[in-house]
Amino acid sequence: MPRPEHRIERDPLGEVRVPARALYGAQTQRAVENFPISGFTAPPELVRATVQVKKAAAQTNAALGRLDKGLAAAIVAAADDILAGNHREAFVVDVYQAGAGTSHNMNTNEVLGNLAEERLGGRRGQYARVHPNDHVNMGQSTNDVFPTATRLAVLEALGGLSRAGDQLAIALERKRDEFAPVLKTGRTHLQDAVPITLGQEFGGFAANVRHALAELARTADQLHELNLGATALGTGLNAGDDYTIQAVSHLARATGFPLRPAADRFRVTQSMGDVLACSGALRRLAVEIGKIASDLRLLSMGPRAGIAEIQLPPVQPGSSIMPGKVNPSVPEMVNQVCYQVIGCDAAILAAADGGQLELNVMMPVIAWNALHAIRILGNAMRVLDTRCVAGILADEIRCRELLDRSTAVATALSPYIGYAETADIAKTAVKTGRSIRELVSERGLLSEQQLDSILAVEAMTTPGVPGENKDTRGAPSNHPRGKRRADAQPSLRPGGRGTASARTPVSAAGSRVARGTGPRRMAAAGTDHGPSRDRGRKHRR
Fold this sequence. Notes:
Helices cover 50% and strands 6% of the residues. A hairpin with a 2-residue loop joins strand 3 and strand 4. By secondary structure, the protein is mainly α.
């Protein structure tokens, strides 16, 4: 005789046809029929967290004498079976479901109930020994189970994300150290700015990742506060303080998190603000990671007609029509992930705002978006670390070439000849193609020795005034009308900050004066940075 494909179960609304082999029951089947929305079901972290809550509840109810110890042992064994990774296919409710997560809670109750029933010799769907509501859900409501499970799931997921973020920061710090000697031009407003080292740039990347991770850890601490035992509204009806204390203690031991009962159960039942705060910190991390990805794309753009100061490791061909083209594929992926994380946060914000009176019924969409954002951002950081940052190379020649062409080094002259004179020199250099050094010398503003020290690029990448005597406090005083003639300069003492004896100036040999006419002509600062190798030679223009 063929085995029937369905069994008949009953709930408060009547009879329901449930697949014969299903571990879930009537209320889950109704949810499957009511919500065929996305095909996405509860994330693994949420399933595990909900099962942990049920296990802790069974242990506590047995200890308090409310639940038969044999039934409790069967429920605990069923929970352990799921926590070991089994029966994941039995959790079938779509993430877009009835408010508050009642369908997910009942899905868990029914699966555990049927597994426990079978352990005690019964059949699936019979519930003669273990009932989903009476035994598995004893002392609980969806309104304290789902918020608690959401917090535990987010905390679990954040562990992996934090490790990925820490490894990315370490990789960036390694590049900071590796690139410390590489001088380059900085950029603000996407325009040339004063010199910086590539190491300093990567050090900033690493520090931003660490700062965002620290903020995320601070907000995550709020998630350790649980409203388990609040039951429907926060009053604790059918649970009690003794139940709350023991159940939370069981969860703390099982998870390793420093969990604590909510100081105000009504607050945690009414509001999803703690998860929202965590999502906001996650968004901030995504913004920081997204900027790093965008900056890597900018710095590597080229290879011939762009900035091309760094080379990213090639991971795949970049074009179906242009042979040989290689794109910054990993940073592009990371940018897309970061946009999605920001979108998840927007959904969480809207849903958190949707709470009404004693409960926020939008918890399922909050939980799914939080866990999805954590998962994809953690994975993206791991890939960015191992398949991109670890293999980045610096093109020191290109960095120096662009630095030598920048007029922003003129900024170091301002303390000596004034802002207005410096601005005029920079403008003239751009317009004529002549170097900053040549124009300063021509106007007799500073001596060659002073220019050697002031225009030493390394001195511009550390705090202080390039060329300033260490014994001089404050910025050098300006000559009247913002100018200081060479014969009016105080001598630079040997060993003083920025002098040739204290800091070896960077040679700019090999750079050429840019050709062209009009405003597009670029100044070649081949003799702007450090001592001139041929002060008597005239530059071609």
